[in-house]
Design brief:
homodimer, about 220 residues, alpha+beta, 10-stranded antiparallel beta sheet, 11 strands
Chain lengths: ~220, ~220
């Protein structure tokens, strides 16, 4: 692990919101369902959403959403993986101070494609477990066919920073006259009732791990 | 408006999920709360989350989250703004087919800083109304002080594509034996009860527009 922060990951704007704490970074990476991968092709940046998962000091993410991404990154091009969860809307007393509560992590580095079959099976297991903890016990590991038809990329979590905004509006009631309600509207990515796929699925009990699926439960401390 | 899709925005992977329909693109841009902005500095891509808003054929977004972004983009560098909403987790019968339902839009182009005071006031109004429709009636327009202390960038929506995944798992029950429950877990960014900031705010009724705040309501058709 490189010493954090590097010049590139140092949080410059509103630096009181910046964090380089390993635990904070890992919790955000583990809890947030998706990431946005940034890469450059012919001088043009692209930002592609995909699913990621963390395994200790390493990120895995699906390369299959964009061959363009795979082609660019397989050449050893630098990339940026950013993970963001919105936690609320801040209703301030002035227009300018309206904002969002959020937790975000940025990881910089060079991604490589996972080729080794053992590592790739483990990476796909991580990604499935990231989406639905407990699911692997039902569906098993990826098959050889799965490996051939799916691309997985990996990025070491060496150069990373977190940025968190929490709490209420940053302008105080003292600064403003009038009676404008100020506060926050908490937001969370919330599940509703599971929908069975085929008639046969309706005959099967909804798995216990799915009933327990919650953003919060998905963020239990891990290695 | 350039003809869509361009070679750069054509959806290559799973092209049945791609869309260049103006209405689809606008609805996603209007409903999703945040965007991820990709830009390049010294060959390194960065992906920064921020708040955006659409005004007809133009995107506005806060430049204040990262001076690095403002500096890079003010020089006329190409950027990519990607907006993504996760709508559910797909529990398939095989590990590989696990996926997410989502709606995403990618806009490519060259962003510029908004300097004209009239346009900037309008842009900030759009951004506040994007977060909380109806709020401007309470807090008013941005002041001169607001303009001086906030950077806003704009990007024409000329080169854009949408990608949507919806429905259930893509592997059918026929392909698999065993009794694995398959289906989807719908997800939505859902508000909970508003939290008043100061004691004085508790004396003020929660605004009606906040009680009506819902992802769905925020996505009423607009120009």
């Amino acid at each position: 692990m490189a010493s954090w922060p590097t010049e590139r990951t140092r949080v410059r704007r509103k630096s009181d919101r910046g964090s380089y704490d390993r635990g904070t970074i890992n919790r955000i990476l583990d809890e947030v369902l998706t990431c946005h991968v940034g890469f450059v092709t012919d001088g043009q940046p692209y930002v592609v959403p995909t699913v990621h998962a963390r395994d200790r000091e390493r990120l895995y993410f699906h390369g299959s959403l964009a061959n363009r991404m795979l082609n660019a990154l397989a050449k050893g091009a630098p990339c940026c993986v950013t993970v963001t969860q919105v936690d609320g809307v801040i209703l301030a007393r002035s227009a300018r101070k309206h904002s969002l509560n959020y937790r975000s992590v940025m990881v910089l580095g060079v991604a490589t494609e996972v080729i080794d079959p053992e590592q790739k099976i483990g990476a796909l297991r991580c990604i499935v477990e990231h989406m639905v903890p407990g699911r692997t016990a039902d569906v098993g590991e990826a098959s050889e066919h799965d490996l051939a038809s799916t691309a997985v990329l990996t990025l070491p979590i060496d150069e990373a920073s977190a940025k968190v905004r929490e709490g209420g509006p940053s302008d105080s009631a003292d600064e403003h006259t009038g009676h404008i309600w100020a506060g926050q509207l908490p937001l969370a990515l919330t599940p509703s009732a599971p929908i069975a796929d085929a008639p046969a699925d309706k005959e099967i009990a909804v798995p216990g791990y799915l009933k327990q699926w919650r953003t919060g439960l998905r963020s239990q401390p891990r290695d």
